[in-house]
């Protein structure tokens, strides 16, 4: 799984903690962090070939960055796109907005992420 924040979102502690916990539990997690250009995300996917991408957003005004990133990933990889999991407090009161981003799943917490990973594990 590749984990990163969308666009210029700098609130990364939650995603970092989740990434570390999943890594300790045996999942292969590559944490890219913040301010990662979309082209670099696409390149990382080409190199690492992850089954999952986890994108976190804390502030609502970064939702457009996530939509752009998700669209770029899906356009580039088509039906071979990794499964995209979106989460973060930006969606706490806006779960319906998450559905419009193009993400495959919305995760409220680490338990949701675990369920998604287990459900879609090869």
From TrEMBL:
The lineage of its organism: Bacteria, Bacillati, Bacillota, Clostridia, Eubacteriales. It comes from the Bacteria. SUPFAM superfamilies: Cobalamin (vitamin B12)-binding domain (SSF52242). It comes from Clostridium sartagoforme AAU1. Transmembrane segments: none annotated. This is Transcriptional regulator, XRE family protein. GO terms for molecular function: cobalamin binding; metal ion binding. Residues 1-122 form the B12-binding domain.
